[in-house]
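This section describes the prediction task in plain terms. A model, or a person checking by hand, is given the sequence of a single protein chain and must write out its three-dimensional structure as a string of tokens. No templates, partner chains or ligands are provided. The sample shown here is typical of the held-out split.
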Amino acid sequence: MLRLIIYSVAVLFFISSQLSGKTKPINGRVKSDSDIYLLNVRIESLPSKTTTKSDENGSFFFEIPIKDRILVISLDGFHPMKLNVIPYKNDTVVELVKIIEVNYLDSINTSIGFILSRDGDNIISYDMDDMLQRGLNRLESVIHWDNSVMVEKKMNGEKMFMINGLPSDEISVFFGGVKINNIEGPINTLVPISNRGFSEFIISTGGYSKFSASSGSIHYLPIMNYENKLSINGYRSTDDNSELDGFGAISLKKVMINGAIKDREHVVHYADSLNSIISRFESNYFSSFAITNRKNLEVSVSGFQSTSGQYNFSNQDSLENRRNSVLAKVDQWSSLTGRIRINGLYQDRLGFNNNQLDVLNIDDICRSLGFTAEKDFDNHVITFSTNSKIIESKWSKDSNSLQIDRQNSIVTWSLESFFSQHDTEVFFKNFKAVFSKERTTDVKDPNSEIDIISNYWDDNSFQLSTKLEAQKENKKNTVYFSFGKSNRTPYLQDVIKGSLYHSLFMDERKLLPEEKSSFELVYQTDVNFKRYRWKYKIRGKFFNDIYRNKIKQIPLIGNAMSIPQNVGKVNKSGLGIHIELQPYIERFRFSSTVSYFNSSNFTKLQLIPHKIIKNQIFIHNKYFDFNLSAISHGNRNFTYLDSSNMFIEEELQQNVNYCLQISKSIKYKMINIVVSLTGENLGNDIILMNNIITNEKKYSIDISTTVQ
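The expected answer:
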């Protein structure tokens, strides 16, 4: 008997080991009980926890371990469904039933979150778990491989976004629905916390954010799912750049505490000497605490600390900044009131900048209080948001002090309407409207040793957009249209720098708000041959932006500081064509994007290329993921202040960047390891900005480990 038991155990172990390495394909479509195919439906296979999400046609495909038995299909606002894998037949259409009276927390088993539209053509959403499975371990890598977004490297090594020619200093940054770039304009790093510390990253290219009708917005959605998690990511490249970040979360069902840390060091070289470099470092710390009743209430407190510095070994410039933030939020939901949020934010910044012009000491404090309410009525969502803040700035230039205070308030109303879908006729799918009113008052302190002009601005912004759709069998045509006007109040630091350095421009000391009128038209065709499991997409876009009192940031050579200047009126327009072919869905993808830009005066726009051509091939199999891209940038105009305090107008020539990435994902029980090997600028087509190399040829390794 004992021998029989031993033999049986051995046989079972052998069978289990054989099954554990085998997979089987699972595919299907998901629609609602109103016969609408659903996007971003989560499909999870148990017990392996292999996950995927449905596309815009409700289709999904993934390979699951052969030992899995259960499929869990879920989407916010719908009753989840569990299916037995064994009798499941591929190409099955699964129907989810909409929840009428929804207990929000219980329905999704996570924290209260405001509805962020992911359906608009001006919305780019990245699920970080999905990106990780593609070998994109860092946000910088995610954006690099996206055809919609361009990352530009400045002379000091900082990275900035560029979407439709929209620079990062025009973008509002939100963390968990609360604006966090109040003191200074563009964020100094792409990620304010760890790469592993947030679940989703959303870019609004047309300014629609519900919370402000700005030129554009970035939303970091932190991980607040009340689950235990540990994640570590390490990065190293041949050009002396390194990054290490980690995230950990502990949950006790109704209580969660998490923390994240990120350290980064990167170097920018001069072309004439390896000893002449710009060395930068960044250290970010983050922690949050949240408690919920898992019914309709959540209270959370988050803390940030960021320290960054730079030293230029060529001209001896140096700077350092330390930033602290504490964010407290109370979120509540009920069927009567909808979702309500009250938030308070404290921020301070302390630092210095020793540059070619002078020595600046910086001391800023910001306190803000916000309220947001969101209510859905059948197919309509109404959002009201208001935020007030007080900023106290105490700067010194050489030995002279400057003091100025700012009071700012903004009120925003938004409406989203969704319409019933029809299969054979053209219909209005949705309509969106946003209106913001912002009032700003700058009051100088009478004891200030440096004279500065007080300001009062009262501005309105709005945006209207709609989407038309026609769907028949395997083809869907979409037309998206939006227009609006936004006013961008200068950041208080820009007001200060504009007053301090106005003599360099020989114009008025007062920096004026930037006004922008925008128009965007998009046409897209999606064809999905479900029977043969391949599809293609053709997308055309035209946009036009008219600026008044355009604010142009002019950087100091080799320094992180820039000086703002109003350059008057300028027109910017663009035309883009995007083609995407997937002959085997989720396995192979080819895409090509061609964008042309035009302007009444390119010299008033920093680093806007005349054209961009980007071709990309993506291959996925059970062994590795393969990415290959070729990105061509046309001529770009760039203005900077050199070491002699002279303004230099430079035109960067066309360049081509060839990139190759190979990644592998390894799963074992609760552990997921993703390794990525990347080569950038393989053709070594470098770009020089006043003898500074901004795009060296480099190879890198990126390793991410997650336990959940």
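For orientation: The longest strand covers residues 359-377.
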